[in-house]
Amino acid sequence: MVYLKNKLINNNLQISKILLIVTIFIFLGILEYSTPNDYVFGYLYSGAILLVNSWFGGMATTSATFVAVFLTMLNVWIPVREVIQASTIASRVIAAMALIVTGFLSQRLRKSQKAIALTQTQLESQAQLVRLREDFASTLTHDLKTPLLGAIETIKAFQQEKFGAVSPTQQKVLATMARSHETSLDLLETLLDVYRNDTEGLKLDLAPVDLSILAETAAATLIELAANRRIHLSLNYGNSDWRRSLWVNGDALQLQRVFSNLLINAINHSRRGDHVEVVLEPQTSYQVVKILDTGAGIQPEQFPHLFERFYQGNSDSYGALRYRGGLSQRQAKGSGLGLYLSRQIIEAHNGIIWAENRVPNGAIFGFKLPVLPFQS
Fold first, then answer.
1. Distance (Å, rounded) from C-alpha 175 to C-alpha 57?
2. Per the CATH hierarchy, to which homologous superfamily does domain 207-370 belong?
3. Is 0.90 topped by the overall pTM?
4. CB neighbour list of residue 38: distance below 8 Å, 6 or more residues apart
């Protein structure tokens, strides 16, 4: 019943529109044919053509344009009581051309509007799909934390011999399992942070922070990892032989993650015997931090993608770490999240993060943050 009622209403509306268009044509026709033929009212048909295009579409617009041009030109000869002047014919030809252009452009406009509407619909659908993916990934990673935490606690209980004696060999296996689970947990935490930052924005707990302390802490934490891989890790203060403070207004926890991410990135993509160096350079407006390595450097085509989410580059026949452009004896591979998260954090601090190649060999990953005034 409701469907029939709506259909009846739509039919009545269509009829009303048709009657309005016919009324406009009749009114303009009366003006045309009741006045001297050197008075050109044909331009006024443009309004009717636009209405037809808006309400009925292409074929109806073509028909309305043809009728308007026909009536405009017919008025040259009808009524026959007047002498035909060349200027009258020229005026009506110009009016007819204007009507044709109006009809053509109105149809082009209608097609453009349809294309724009279709594009907007597709973009909205894609945005909705992206949101669904983000929600799914966020929910999945959050739910995976619980079993991982449970597994880690269980392994710790075995290591502490709460379920009976554990041999040294078993302790080594348990330690390997614990490290593997903790790495997976770190990855999940990073993934959750990335999705949260993309959807909600990064929330910072700002306070005066000395970057030199964060750098020393990160280096001390990772010194064992570097040593195990035969990589020399050092820290210096640019041209100064003395320890210097680099004060910024920042979130210490988030900036600590940037140091860790960049250092782990350098260590993981260095070869045995390489040198990874943290350089701290105070400047007038910015505090600059650089992580330098002595590896093979970065391929030019990969610079635009280094800080993209999940970017790892392309593997090749050497089994190389292509997202850093160099060969690795370990063939380590990351998640593609560390550099992306670091970019999120630095940009949230109104800073700049970048990568470049060293001369003669190696790579530099650096960032700079605005100096905190009135601090030394």
1. 73
2. Histidine kinase-like ATPase, C-terminal domain (3.30.565.10)
3. no
4. 85, 87, 88, 91
